[in-house]
Specification:
The protein is mainly beta. The chain contains 4 helices and 10 strands, in the order H-E-E-E-E-H-E-H-E-E-H-E-E-E.
Length: about 230
């Protein structure tokens, strides 16, 4: 991490507002639109997404359905698959929105073109919002994915922020995990302009904003453990 970024983020993070950590402290949620069992609805994040290599999985193999001969003949390509487990106590929760914020570290890219990787920003930022609806009582999963080409070119996730929002637009939980020096766990790094607009010693952006983070249901992973995921609102 560039020294200038570390100095700037240290000042910024001192004033950062930490997110609630539902895994350690459950958040009570009064969802006026959702039927309940008579008790206040409770929604908790029980398992947070993994960082680095632990977030990568070999592409699932589903053969057939094509008139083309197989193009890829090497080892299975790895996807970045970010998953969170959460629990709802109400009989039915109308809507829950998960806002994802992800930083990939270019140094960990699997592309052999290291010269090309050196021309990229040190970190790539991705964000995606997914809303689930008609969520029954019990344990569920939320997930977003990045195609193997992103891991190959832009690297592994080294900071992940996840915010959970109820049907009324209120933030009811979330957290941040980070292996990046200068970006503290539990902080909203994506809202900190000193971090997001930081420059390298050469005056180039430290973080490049990119697109491509997808809701799991829009990828091949929709076929894996589909019962863990609720209907995505359109």
């Amino acid at each position: 991490m560039n020294k200038k970024l570390m100095m700037m983020t240290t000042v910024a993070l001192a004033a950062a507002v930490a997110l609630a950590a539902p895994k350690r402290k459950p958040v009570a949620v009064a969802d006026e639109d959702a039927p309940t069992t008579g008790k206040e609805a409770k929604i908790t994040i029980d398992q947070f997404p993994k960082l680095g290599r632990q977030s990568t999985l070999d592409a699932p193999s589903i053969s057939g359905g094509s008139t083309l001969a197989q193009c890829w003949t090497g080892k299975p390509r790895k996807w970045i698959v970010l998953e969170a487990k959460y629990t709802t106590e109400a009989r039915c929760t109308e809507r829950l929105t998960f806002a994802w914020h992800v930083l990939l570290d270019t140094k960990t890219c699997t592309n052999k073109d290291k010269e090309g990787a050196a021309k990229l920003a040190p970190y790539s930022y991705f964000t995606q919002t997914v809303t689930y609806q008609n969520i029954p009582h019990g344990s569920h999963a939320a997930s977003v994915c990045l195609h193997p080409s992103y891991l190959e070119r832009f690297g592994e996730p080294k900071a992940i922020g996840l915010v959970m929002i109820d049907a009324n637009g209120e933030v009811i939980g979330g957290d941040t995990v980070s292996d990046i020096k200068g970006i503290a766990p539990h902080s909203k790094f994506w809202d900190d302009d000193n971090i997001m607009s930081a420059k390298t010693s050469a005056g180039n952006p430290m973080i490049e904003r990119r697109q491509g983070l997808l809701d799991r249901s829009k990828t091949i992973w929709a076929m894996v453990n589909p019962n863990d995921y609720e209907q995505v609102a359109q």
